[in-house]
Each structure stands twice: as C-alpha cells, then as structure tokens.
Amino acid sequence: MGHSPSPASEEGFGTPGRPLEGVRVADLSRVLAGPYATMLLADMGADVVKIEHPGRGDDTRAWGPPWAGGEASYFLAVNRNKRSLAVDLKDPEGLAAVQEVCAGADVVMQNFRPGVVDRLGLGYAEVSARNPAVVYCSISGFGPEHAPAERPGFDLIVQAESGFMAATGEPGGPPTKAGVAITDVLTGLNAAVAVLGALVRSRATGRGEHVSASLVNSALSGLANVTQQALVTGTEPARVGNTHGSIVPYQAFATADADIVVAAGNDALYGRLCSVLGRSDLAADPRFATNPDRVAHRAELVAEISGELRTRPAAEWLEALLAAGVPVGRVRGVLDAVGNAQLAGDDVLLHAEHPAAGPLDLVRAGFRLDSAAGESTAAPPPLLGEHSARVLAETGLPADRVARLIDRGAVLQARREDAGAGGAPPTG
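The line above is the sequence of CoA transferase; the predicted structure tokens follow.
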C-alpha cells in the first residue's frame, strides 16, 4: 500500500490530489457490478487496470445497440478513467503477467465463477501470499456460501429471487423489474464501500482482507424498510406502484398537463399542501388529521387531492408547492432530467474525447469531492487493449517479451490512430 504515483498519472489515470491517489486496482471484473465499483474508485483517483480478453473484451463491449463510433453505450457508462490490458489468461506467459499485475496491486476486483480464479492462480490465497496488504474483492450473484456454488446471477434473475420484482409494480398488477439493473448498481456501491473500509485497515496495519459482495445480498439489504416490514408482519408486502404503503399523500398525481409527485411526509407538510390546494376542509377533517388516519382513508383523500391537482398545469403547482415548502417534483424523462439538473447548476455531466466515439457526455457519480471541484473532464473509457504494452512494461516485463506476446495474439495492443468513428461493433 502507498505506492508512489503511477506513470499512468501523467496520462490522467490515478489522478493526483484525489483521496485514492497512489492506489492501484487490478480489475478482473466485467459487465456492471464490478466495473461500476472500480469506476467509483477511479473517480476517487485510483489507477484502475481493466484486464480483458484480447478477442472480445468485457461482455458489455458487445451489448448494443446503441453504439457510439462502434462502442457500446453500456460499456461507455461504467468504464471511464481506466486503462485496458487485453491478455489471454489461457496463455501461460500472459497469465504470469496478470499474476504480476495483481501482486503489485492494492486492490483486486473479480467476478469469475467460483473456483476459476483459484485454478488460474489469481485467487485471494495466491495473491495475498505475495502481497499480504492486498484488498481482494469477490463479486457474485448469490454469495460465496450460496448453494449451488456456481449458480449464475444476472440482475434480472436476482431481482426475481430477492423479492425486488414482487415488491415493484402496480397494485393487482404483475411483479415488475426496476428500469435499470439495480442489484448490479447496489452491489457495485457495496463493493466500493467494503474496499474503502478494508483499505483503511490495510494502510494502518499492512494487513489486507478478502471482502465479498453479492447481488442477492445487496438486493435484500437494498429493499431496506420493505424487507423489515415483511419481517415484522410475517406477510408479503403489497405492491403499491407510485404510492407509499406507510405515508399518504406520497405519490404521483396527474395535473392538467403532466404528472407530478407530491411527498407530504408529515402532518405539517400535509397542512401546507391543503393550504396551497385551497382546501382547509381537508386539513380539518378528522379522517385525515394524522398520517395513520390518512393511510386508513387513503382512497377518499387521494380522490380529493387528485381532483384539485387536475385543475391547473404542472408548472403552476410546482411553483406554488415549492414556495410553500411542500416537497414536489415533475415526472421527467431521462434526457429531460439530465438537462434540468444541468440548468439547475448541478453539473451532473463529465466530458471525454473518445478516439472512436468522439465527444462523449458521461454521468458523474453520486458523490462530489472538493479535490475534484471545477473539473469537468474524464479519461474516456479505453479501447480494448489500449494500454496493454504500457501496463506490462510497468510490471517489469521486457519489451521484447511484450512484443512476442502481441505478435502471437496473447496480448492485444490497440492504437488510437486505428480507431475511427462509425467502426463496426465487436462480434465476440
């Protein structure tokens, strides 16, 4: 732990001045959960080396359309600020090189099927034997103790198995998945948090740790109060759509021209809502005096509020409710949401110049760092194998051996000048 700044810092990787400056990450993960976690570490200044197959790379390189200059938007979403080492792990010399990368890393992230990393000599036991301070993170669908051990765990499967789908959707309607691979995203966040905690101890004691994160555990914990509700009551939570099972009014409403959401989460806010609606009678009605009362008489109250909100356009209600301090928002599409956040001064976008895709807008992580204040650019997601020769040279591998690996196809070294906008997507 505590490497001096990497030569990669000169190219914009492992950004100096960030909290994880000097931290090196060997990223053997692919798809979403692991790459999302390592992107967060890269955003915080870590030098992340993304280790990929030289023929097909990360699975998400082929997950299109849509494409941008031959690059899948899915891959572009979670791989900024990283370097790509494309190497065939079935090649003994290529595998040995990756073992060296892992031995010199502060963090190793992997999501292979159980047993695969051990057979490759890249498991925690092998890596930590050479590097006792390493923080080694394993990501899986169902966790290290789950049987059967090799059960695959894509987000859709885990949303179904975890209760996430059962808790999502309209009352009386079918179970519904979230519109994004939410269990992958939650797992990426959990993995990053666990890695950061283990890094603190590694820095203090020189002892690393094997941490794990799974999609199913992330989903169960991410259901939060819904899971707790089920445990307390012993019954399955009902689907509530765009309402809330324990708070009224806390839902979407139609106005004269668009949908808004109103979140009157306590009695005082409810009173303010009634004042804006011009319905002091609703505030005085004993059926609606407290939140439990409002939950008990949900249908009657929602009908009254809905009738009032339909009389005026969304913009007028937003202005009036915000002025009264009532939490309210417009139901927006994704592009509208990004544009509105930008107009509001949130600066949610980073900009990158990609050699194939051209100018790219990328969405910032959900946190902000004072050490990154004012910065609006990022290193673009790498071409497959874009940094192979440089990374291998950093392990001490002589240039002639690197050249031989490239010549026989065990390592891919991409060249930016060969990338062109509109190139064909990968075929695997």
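Note on the example: Residues 1-5, 421-425 have pLDDT under 50 and may be disordered. The radius of gyration is 25 Å.
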